[in-house]
Amino acid sequence: xxxxxxxxxxxxxxxxxxxxxxxxxxxxxxxxxxxxxxxxxxxxxxxxxxxxxxxxxxxxxxxxxxxxxxxxxxxxxxxxxxxxxxxxxxxxxxxxxxxxxxxxxxxxxxxxxxxxxxxxxxxxxxxxxxxxxxxxxxxxxxxxxxxxxxxxxxxxxxxxxxxxxxxxxxxxxxxxxxxxxxxx
Length: 184
Description:
Blueprint: E1 4-11, H1 29-41, E2 42-48, H2 49-56, H3 66-74, E3 77-80, E4 94-96, H4 101-109, E5 115-118, H5 122-130, E6 136-142, E7 162-169, E8 175-181
Parallel strand pairs: 1-5, 1-6, 2-3, 2-5, 3-4
Antiparallel strand pairs: 6-8, 7-8
């Protein structure tokens, strides 16, 4: 069975939105190596509509990070949206998820392949997390207080136990924490 994962750059106060505004002065070689290792395990990406639209407007022509650009542009991308149509998904290797998202993910997990990564979409990651379909959540906590922005978890979320699979820090003070859902 394939594993569904998600990873987010994260501020100390829990913000994951717009990490481009606060992460780069804390980016280091260890973090780059971790991301490279993570990318080598992924063969499919799940994206929400908003994340897909933002990334589709940037990555196909971006030269800022050639490694990630080549990775994400060539990767099969499945898009969860109730408003987009397949003919609107011009970014290469993008496919609209037809039918129920949770049924699609359950079925896709049973097929052979590598990791399925949720990228560019906290709403999608939250939905899969609370449905029990997200097996691994990596939070890369940068040593910064972002102040405001979207968070992975909200005060109204149900109590959900997590299991710390591994944790380590990097030379610039990033803390990488990898969690799995704790079995009931």
